[in-house]
Specification:
Strand content: 5-15%
Shape: globular
Distance between the termini: 19 Å
Helix content: 40-55%
Number of strands: 6
Radius of gyration: 17 Å
Structural class: alpha+beta
Mean pLDDT: 80
Length: 253
């Protein structure tokens, strides 16, 4: 874990605070500068998956500003929409800055798909709402994911965002589009605020309770590493709760 924490600090180009704990996914808190990495069973947490989570959250450390999340709250934007669209933007920038992450992301997401991390094995991907399908497509590049002619422009807009302002505006526009076009909501969804059904928690840091029944280890251990010593690992529960609730400035995979 110490080596992975050091890797995260190097990629982030700052002395971020890295913690490891039992939870569903990774997160980065833009205010406390804390990166949380999950403790999973070995069959799920492959080397590529671990490096994927680090590369993704480091992207938030580098390019997701705190004032962006504050503005999203002021504007009353849906946290899930903002998080998904911001994920697409920062992953593109991460792969541009660190080209070696391209193959890491490809293999890491392939492993997560194989393990059904996104919980899509029980129903056709076409039955998911547009925002969920955009999320999976941008992360995996799976060209078999269906989009209608009216939906494709939103996929293209997602791929073209360059700034935090682009993401916030697109989140607002896409939400309104889906409100006016109920066929884009997928099956069994009436309220857009309940639409996002795959594990992409909002930027308020609420992880939920293992929505896809991942095989998490039976441990409550949490370890944290500070950049001050580099070599010491200590148990801690003071910085974040076991549910990953870290306030209103947390972005998660």
């Amino acid at each position: 874990m110490k080596n992975k924490s050091t890797l995260a600090k190097l990629l982030a180009e700052e002395d971020i605070f890295v913690v490891h704990k039992q939870m569903d996914t990774a997160y980065f808190n833009t205010k406390s500068r804390e990166l949380g990495l999950p403790i999973w069973k070995d069959e799920l947490m492959t080397k590529d998956t671990y490096d994927l989570l680090i590369g993704h959250e480091v992207g938030h450390a580098l390019w997701t500003p705190l004032d962006m999340l504050e503005e999203a709250q002021v504007r009353g934007l849906n946290h899930g929409f903002v998080n998904i669209l911001e994920d697409a933007r920062i992953e593109k920038k991460s792969k541009e800055k660190y080209p070696g992450l391209i193959s890491v992301f490809t293999r890491g997401y392939a492993n997560l798909m194989k393990r059904d991390f996104f919980g899509i094995s029980k129903k056709p991907i076409g039955s998911f709402g547009l925002i969920d399908r955009i999320n999976i497509f941008m992360k995996t590049g799976d060209k078999s994911i269906p989009f209608s002619e009216t939906e494709l422009p939103w996929v293209e807009k997602t791929a073209k965002t360059k700034t935090p302002a682009d993401v916030l505006d697109l989140a607002e526009e896409l939400y309104k589009f889906m409100e006016k076009n109920p066929e884009t909501k997928g099956e069994n969804f009436e309220n857009l605020d309940d639409l996002i059904s795959i594990p992409v928690p909002g930027m308020d840091g609420e992880l939920g309770e293992n929505p896809n029944n991942l095989s998490l280890p039976e441990t409550g251990d949490e370890t944290s590493e500070t950049g001050e010593t580099g070599d010491e690992t200590s148990e801690t529960g003071d910085e974040t709760s076991e549910t990953g609730e870290t306030g209103d400035e947390t972005s998660e995979t």
